[in-house]
Amino acid sequence: MTETQVETRTLAATGATLRYDIRSSPTDGETSESVLFLIGSPMGAGGFATLASHFTDRTVVTYDPRGVGRSPRTDGSAETTPEEHADDLRCVIEALGARAVDVFASSGGAVNALALVERHGGLVRTLVAHEPPSAQVLPDREAALEVCADIHATYLRDGMGPAMAKFIAVTSRKGPFPATWANEPVPSPSDFGLPTEDDGSRDDPLLGQNMRGCTGYRPDFAALRAASTRIVIAAGRESEGEFAARAAAEIAATLGTGLAVFPSHHGGFLGGEFGRHGAPEEFAKALRHVLDTDG
């Protein structure tokens, strides 16, 4: 088995201190053009431990996005935008001194990676954007955006439990949101084992920082088409009909590319992180196939 060395570095960015990890085998030496970024948002580096273990032949970089884990914000802002995340990613890539990198980006990370390619496509050779949850591209965009705004408002008003219950129900829902979505029954936090009492905290990065900025982001399709980056939009086989998978299908169709179908679900690469399991071995094989295939 190849021994992997992990080095953690710190980078001062505008409004945040970023921490990122570089995984390499002793034979890799310095980072090279084989660098593979694995990114999420708001999920940090810890969510990619299993997936990274399947790419010991490459230099793998993971990081905690601003406001998450080891990357505290220094600007006091309560929310963040894909543009800010894209600039953070640019800074990390440039700090590495690597040539164009490959990127696997999940969920909000996929939105941020699309924003990166729009602005700095020359830094990314291949982007695999897995289930970017952009409500703006959906046929039912108005209802979807209202639903996301309601989750954010619920969090600010009632706390994590009620807001997360709505989030789980929304993200697992099959099919579009009707205009009458507000008349539907409201899920109880206890249905999902979530706290029913409000502890007063409002520092959850998913519900507080990313909920509106990420889902409200509309890709610049002209910029994406003009970029030198090879863009692959992907979704999980089991996710068909769900919010993020529907958005992925719409983005792929607008770009004029086929949707890459990966094993498992939205978190198909997870191998027990956060108590969730996908099909990480099969997922890693599918990802490697995409990265190793030209065109």
From TrEMBL:
Keywords: Hydrolase
Segments forming domain AB hydrolase-1: 35-140
Domain of life per record: Bacteria
GO molecular-function term, one example from the UniProt record: hydrolase activity
Annotated segments matching region Disordered: 64-86, 179-202
Protein name: Alpha/beta fold hydrolase
UniProt cross-references to Pfam families, sorted A to Z: Abhydrolase_1 (PF00561)
InterPro entries to which the protein is assigned, alphabetical: AB_hydrolase_1, AB_hydrolase_fold
Keyword Hydrolase: yes
Coiled coil region boundaries: none
